[in-house]
């Protein structure tokens, strides 16, 4: 790409997608350098679990995220399987995000390990989009020890495709003049909004690449898919006005785990997991300066419906006041569990915290003095615990939680 195109001068918007390489596995290697160069697989010590992250040395054996642990063990029997330490990953993610915010106030985290940044208008400070991407990668590496891959484009979708293609330790930029040519040969499934059903209908119509779709009469797409067909047409031409939505638009936080053995609802394992999930959610909310008012309990039962499906129920409760206190979240989930009195064995429990608001300590004044004092005490205790976690890792947490934390390795968070 020549200097003129990558200068950013002609870019209507400069959007970066930054994605940490094999984040959880890399975090484990960062904390234990003796793991470097070895096949590290996180999320998979339980035979029922799924792989949440695999180092590139593990991927050589075909191990991938979302693969059942049992399959990963067959592919890579000498792999180093770790349960994962969500509190540590959340802490590192927070450090990385702090670096992102130095590059732009418009940061949209998609998960712990990836985010969009709007770098439009940073040219004078950071140089061309490629220069900005290079500086971002260097800052993340210098300050956290983690490797991030970065894609830069005038649209979010293209930026995400580019960071993905550039991995590992990648950096790619495509300017507005080259966008259509870049998208043209890619499989049409790369377009946002093309799921399995849409894909098979597109393929039936002879549309396999983004270029195929871009050449179709939009009226035909409209008759096939309605308005979303026209939307796909726009995307295929590299036109996508979606903006980088800053952090506060996040909708929910969730933690859940699948048990190694199915559990009765009143078992200690279920209780310990709900306590641990509540505490993990509290820590994550506090780390992001957020509070939640609604707590949802999710239960998946052990009775198979076939094809890997199980009955799922959810129960929600809205609290009188928004909270970032993990004990309150866990207790609310416990209350809902007791009230729903499930008689079947449980395969998975999860908690989601939503109805989010920015934490605002001045809100404490809304409570009566006694409640306010108690809440302030709890808030201080939680802050102290966060500090201990930051310094010594989640295993240092007291308050009887250590056992619960071990009982509930989270297999999915969002
Ligand atoms: Mg990643």
Summarize the structure.
This protein has 414 residues and is α+β, with helices and mostly antiparallel strands. It has helices at 3-6, 23-31, 56-59, 69-75, 86-103, 123-126, 129-144, 156-166, 179-183, 196-204, 210-215, 218-225, 227-236, 268-287, 326-340, 369-392, 402-407; strands spanning 15-20, 40-42, 53-54, 80-82, 107-111, 114-118, 148-153, 171-173, 252-263, 290-301, 312-323, 346-358, 412-413. 43% of the residues lie in helices and 20% in strands.
Rounded to the nearest angstrom, the distance between the terminal CA atoms is 36 Å
Helix content: 40-55%
Tally of individual helices: 17
Radius of gyration over C-alpha positions, nearest whole angstrom: 23 Å
Average pLDDT for all residues: 86
Shape: globular
Low-confidence stretches: 1-6, 361-366, 395-414
Beta-strand segment tally: 13
Provide the structure class: alpha+beta
Spell the H/E element sequence. HEHEEHHEHEEHHEHEHHHHHEHEEHEHHE
State which percent range the strand residues make up: 15-25%
Bound molecules: magnesium ion
Main sheet attributes: strand count, strand direction, barrel closure: 5 strands, mixed
Which strand order does the major sheet show? 5-6-1-7-8
């Amino acid at each position: 790409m020549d200097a003129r195109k990558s200068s950013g001068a002609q870019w209507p918007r400069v959007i970066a997608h930054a994605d940490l390489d094999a984040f959880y596995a890399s975090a484990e290697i960062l904390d234990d350098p003796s793991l470097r160069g070895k096949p590290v697989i996180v999320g998979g010590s339980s035979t029922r679990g799924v792989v949440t992250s695999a180092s590139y040395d593990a991927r050589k054996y075909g191990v991938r995220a979302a693969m059942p642990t049992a399959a990963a063990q067959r592919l890579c029997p000498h792999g180093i399987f770790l349960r994962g330490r969500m509190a540590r990953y959340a802490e590192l993610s927070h450090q990385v995000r702090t670096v992102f915010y130095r590059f732009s106030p418009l940061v949209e985290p998609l998960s712990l390990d990836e985010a969009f940044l709007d770098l439009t208008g940073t040219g004078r400070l950071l140089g061309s989009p490629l220069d900005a991407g290079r500086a971002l990668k260097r800052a993340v590496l210098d300050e956290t020890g983690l490797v991030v891959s970065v894609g830069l484009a005038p649209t979010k979708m293209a930026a995400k495709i580019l960071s993905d293609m550039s991995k590992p330790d990648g950096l790619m930029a495509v300017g507005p003049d080259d966008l259509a040519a870049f998208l043209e040969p890619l499989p049409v499934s790369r377009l946002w909004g093309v799921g399995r059903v849409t894909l098979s209908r597109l393929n039936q119509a002879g549309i396999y690449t983004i270029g195929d779709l871009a050449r179709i009469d939009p009226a035909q797409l409209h008759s096939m898919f309605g308005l979303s067909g026209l939307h796909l047409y726009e995307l295929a031409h590299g036109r996508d006005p979606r903006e980088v939505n800053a952090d506060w638009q996040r909708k929910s936080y969730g933690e859940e785990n699948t048990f190694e053995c199915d559990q009765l609802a009143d078992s200690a394992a279920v209780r310990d997991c709900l306590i641990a999930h509540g505490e993990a959610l509290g820590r994550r909310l506090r780390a992001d300066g957020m509070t939640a008012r609604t707590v949802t309990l999710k239960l998946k039962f052990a009775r198979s419906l076939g094809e890997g499906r199980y009955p799922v129920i959810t129960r929600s409760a809205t609290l009188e006041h928004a909270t970032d206190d993990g004990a309150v979240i866990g207790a609310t989930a416990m209350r809902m569990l007791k009230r729903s009195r499930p008689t079947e064995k449980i395969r998975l429990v999860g908690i989601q915290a939503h109805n989010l608001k920015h934490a605002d300590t001045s809100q404490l004044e809304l409570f009566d003095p006694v409640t306010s004092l108690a809440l302030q005490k709890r808030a201080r205790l939680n802050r102290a615990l966060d500090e201990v976690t930051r310094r010594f890792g989640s295993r240092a947490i007291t308050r009887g939680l250590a056992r619960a934390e071990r009982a509930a390795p989270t297999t999915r968070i969002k």
